[in-house]
Amino acid sequence: MVRAALLPAIALLATGLRAQEPGPWAGKGTVRAALTFSTGHLLRQRGFDSSYLSGRLEVFLEDRVSLRGEGLRYTGSAWRDGLFEQNNLITAGAFWNWHLGRLNPAIGVGPGLALTRALLAGDALRPAPVAQACAGVTYTLWDHFHGVADARYLRAELQGPGGPYDISEFIWGAGLGLHIR
Question: What DSSP letter does each residue of the chain carry, written as one string?
């Protein structure tokens, strides 16, 4: 019964989302840049969190398809003794975008690289491959100015003395940016 009611609602919602045309704030040829503040929670290392300052650049190849590159700079932990001395990330990904007036939800996936110096893995700076899944929204405030909010899951494993360490993290953040078309 519930399934029978949900299927038409989902189909109607999907049709409405597909029918939306991009406004003048997104679509093919748009370039967006943003600065965000993010916080993260390490999933397997209980009690540790992270803070990041990040910058991103996104280019729309088609009305709904964009490529995004992002750099996250580790700024510390709320805990006195955090897990990382350094944990900087570089990610890239392909994103699928919806256009709902000034609101632009998007989902994407992509690879990345973490350059990490973890306190429990010794003092060497070590690279760790990263896989990410991300979902977020952009809201255009004025013609060339927007706000962003997103959440992402980063899967990463750091090799070090004593075995590999799972440094997978859930990161969420918000910020402001500029765009041109």
Answer: -HHHHHHHHHHHHHHHHHHPPP-TTSSTT-EEEEEEEEEEEESSSTT-EEEEEEEEEEEESSSSEEEEEEEEEEEE-SSSS-SEEEEEEEEEEEEEE--BTTEEEEEEEEEEEEEEEEGGG-S--EEEEEEEEEEEEEEEEETTEEEEEEEEEEEEEE--TTS-EE--EEEEEEEEEEEE-
Residue 51 has pLDDT above 70, yes or no: yes
Cβ(123)–Cβ(103) under 8 Å? no
Between 47-51, 72-76, 100-104, 166-170, the lowest mean confidence (pLDDT) is in 47-51
Contact (CB, 8 A) for 126 and 114: no
Residue 34 and residue 38: Cα distance in Å, rounded?
12
Task: Enter the pTM of the model.
Answer: 0.80
Q: What is the rounded CA–CA span in Å between residue 134 and residue 97? A: 12
Q: Report pLDDT digits (tens) over 86-100.
A: 889 999 999 999 999
Q: How does pLDDT run across 11-27, given as a tens digit for each residue?
A: 444 434 443 445 566 78
